[in-house]
Amino acid sequence: MKKTAGIHHITAIVGNPQQNVDFYAGILGLRLVKKTINFDDPGTYHLYFGDEDGRPGTAITFFPWDGGHRGKVGDGQVAVTSFVIPKGSMTFWETRLARFDVAFSKEMRFGEQSLQFHDPHGIALELVARDEGTASTWHFGGITSDAAIKGFGGAVLGSIQPQQTGKLLEKVMGLARLGEENGYIRFRSEADLGNVIDVKQTPSERGRMGVGTVHHIAFRVQDDTDQLEWKQYLEANGFGVTPVQDRNYFHSIYFREFGGILFEMATDGPGFAIDEAKDRLGEKLMLPPQYEELRPRLEEILQPIAVRTLD
Fold first, then answer.
1. Is 157 in contact with 163 (CB distance < 8 Å)?
2. Where would I find the VOC domain in this sequence (predicted)?
3. Are strands 59-64 and 41-50 parallel, antiparallel or unpaired?
4. What is the Cα–Cα distance from 192 to 144, expressed in whole angstroms?
5. Which residues touch 45 (CB under 8 Å, ≥6 apart)?
6. For a pLDDT cut of 90, what percent of the chain falls above it?
7. Mean pLDDT throughout 101-127?
8. What does the radius of gyration of the chain's CA atoms come to, in whole angstroms?
């Protein structure tokens, strides 16, 4: 059995791109590590936020559809995206969210307290405090390493076939099944970030893609060779897998698991520093070679955005 190290990235659909930047960079303090386009829809941004390098396990990414139709959160989607913060920083985050008028609630799940809230476009998020995971060295907006988000804690999945999704995670992707509690099954990978997946045990209503929903969840593979092994392995286990897609900063394959969720398997490299210096990440619109000739037109139609410190 092969094993994934855990989550590589999570991609969601949101609305206005400046509101997206203000929330994830301005309020949550993540670094905008790449400003590029959706390679399959070049008139739409693809924005990546993460730690100082956008390492696998820290990067949340967005397709902003300003004025796009609203989606519906439900089965066949990531229901909640979880971020890890340092132990002892929960009070800091309660104060910070309140300062920016972000409503939140608290929940206990598997002995962990989480701080739950939504971004401006309806994406469900939570913060959990854990010792594991390297502290972020990215400082922005008054958030220092003793409170900064380290990366993903994991995700809560809503599935139309929870047992099938659980079987995939445990028997095919190599996550350990830790137990059941209050309607969830918990699985864990061997990484120190992006390592906890909770699956809702009871199906509800099917979700619908649109603004305010997660488009897909990506899991880590080591490199191109490992990815091709994963493709053959997944196909041998009955999943229809796409050809390899070159996303510049990683290579990807995709499949729709039996619970309806779009899964991606993405390589750890080459990373976000291949076309920008590390200290300048996210500053310019970066285009893949096939779209460079369209730069004047794309810069005209894409809304200007800026990372800014919020009062």
1. no
2. 6-130, 151-268
3. antiparallel
4. 20
5. 17, 35, 36, 37, 38, 62, 63, 64, 302, 305
6. 99
7. 98
8. 18
Amino acid identity, position 127 = L
Q: Is pLDDT above 90 for 282?
A: yes
The phi, psi pair for 172, rounded to 5°, reads -110, -45
pLDDT at 1: 87
CB of 21 within 8 A of CB of 304? no
**Alpha helices, H only, the chain:** 17-21, 90-99, 162-167, 224-236, 295-301
Q: Would you say 21 and 33 are in contact if contact means Cβ atoms under 8 Å apart?
A: no
pLDDT confidence of residue 253: 98
**Angstrom distance (rounded) from CA 174 to CA 274:** 31
pTM > 0.85: yes
Specify the CATH number of the domain 7-301.
Answer: 3.10.180.10
Q: In which band, very low, low, confident or very high, does the pLDDT at 164 lie, cut at 50, 70 and 90?
A: very high
Q: Residue 192: enclosing H or E segment and its boundaries?
A: none
Sequence ranges of the domains in the chain: 7-301
In the chain, the amino acid numbered 176 is: A
Task: Determine the Cα–Cα distance for residues 214 and 209; give it in Å rounded to an integer.
Answer: 8
